[in-house]
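Take one protein record:
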Amino acid sequence: MFTCKACLRRAFASLINPSPRPYRTSTIPRPIYVSTQSRRHKTTYAEAGAPVETTKQDEAPGKDLKLQRVSQSQDWAAQKQLQYLKDPLYIAQHVSKTLEKDNFEEAALVTRKASRNTKVIVSWNHLIDYQLRHDKLHAGIKLYNEMKKRAQLPNAQTFTIIFRGMAKSSHPKLAVSEAVKIYNTMLTSTSRMKPNTIHMNAVLQVCAKAQDIDSMFSIAATANDGLRAPNNLTYTTILNALQASVNKPDYRSLQDFEVTKAKTRVIQQAKAVWQEVISKWRAGSVIIDEELVCAMGRVLLLGDYYDADSLEALVEQTMMIPRDDKVEALQLKSPKDTESLKGTNIAVPPPVKAVSQKIQAPGAPAIGHALPGNNSLSMILLALERTGKTTKIQKYWDIFTKERNVVPDADNWHQLIKVLRRGKNSLKTVSYLRDMPAKLMVPKNFRTAMSTCIRDNLNRSSFDHATEVLEIMQAKLRLPDMQVLQQYLRVAYANKRHFVEQSKDEQAGMMAWGKQIATALDNIWKPYMIMSRHCENDGPESDLKQQLIALARKMIAAYDRVIFSKIVPPEVEEQIKPKRSGLNRVVVRHFEQMREIDPHFRLKDEEDEGEDFTKQFRQRHHKSEKRPAAEGR
């Protein structure tokens, strides 16, 4: 009968209260109700037709009412959820899923309501972890304090979440002060919860990120042989923090002697820490892994020659990788041999079996020494580069890759080529480049290899090795690197001495050298054309086009060198002149385009590194270009 709810409501109201309502006419003033807050200061009604002023205070209750309704709705929804979630485990799972949807308010409301009669510590942990993961340090600490006020006692996981979240904070100084405060409170309080090794390591990481070395050592001093027994992560964090403390940008403004003094102090501190590591390792209470060994090795690489040289002893001591020196010949057959090594810089490694039998640390591996990997391989190669002991490359590379089954990564291969550059060994460089997987090859590998050939310029075969490097690059890379092509020209220039020394006639030696330069120009012509077609649609200001023009200028200078010096046969000269003219047109067109873009553009005079250009050749070149115009006049 009644399809409208309002009509139905009026009908029932008339049955309950049958007294008729007087009809309201326009002559009777209609009351205008205002908020409860404004009734104290305003009249309850206004005259008909009189304007009523509304203020923000009058509108605020409407907004508050809306927020109150939303809050009531959320409160009702949270209460409904808790009707079906009785177990703390299910409550924690619901809170976790709600936080995954970034609905923090709902998760916090459910947790607060559940805290009235249930221990939901895991749910509180989820809330704190969410805030710290979103870099809200104050909000996380506030939740931690609220958790305690609601009689939800934090567990070990709570403090682990707090400390690890602080280690990732973008406000490291604030994180250090809060972490140290909470950690010291745990130490001094009489509560059941005391910090353990995990908590100590997490706080150490907070201090390490903030470069607060003093606070870090104060936390490390709280270690003991029981609940807070230091492990390999403890010492790794300390050593990495020491290394980072002298590599920060603030040290760039210091004088060299100040930086050296700081590095010396850090190395001394690291050596003191390492003595404790070795003593605990031999006692079987600490496990040494590759990460810990490399942390100590990177600190030693900050020092001088002798510190870098001690890395071989470090690897021998912790990874049982022998080194080639006189100490190996002793073989340590008797205790007298061990005593004779005291006072030297060589650390005597403990026997492998003895260490493996004494290991008592939980989760200890069957092998009592650290297993080598990619990080330790790069470290020992860097040490060989620093000390110049490049003849040991083959030995260490074979031990790591063949005996210990370490698969070299891209950084290992590049570090290997860098060591060969230090040793000026272009032959082995080519050999290792052939063995290097194509998927790991990048332009910097070939730049380093070409630089090795330049350093090996006294070797009569260095130009041939450079040619092989160029061929490998063209075969392995999709596009040739133009910096490598420039370096290849430098090799052709630098590899000159043996031509002059071996030839009785100076002119014959210069002709042989000129033939080598012409060969180099011919070898890079094809990759130059490939890059020219690749960037033909690029603007003159693009980096690739700039590199191409720089290469073209180098090639023009080389062509001028062999042409005006008369160090190539006439038939070769006739063949290379058209190429030189084509390159010159490309360069002139490029600089005209640059001047159209920038009228104030001026070409900087670039001297060719390692090339012995003289002003005489340039002057003769300019005169040869102006001569036909003068004759035409």
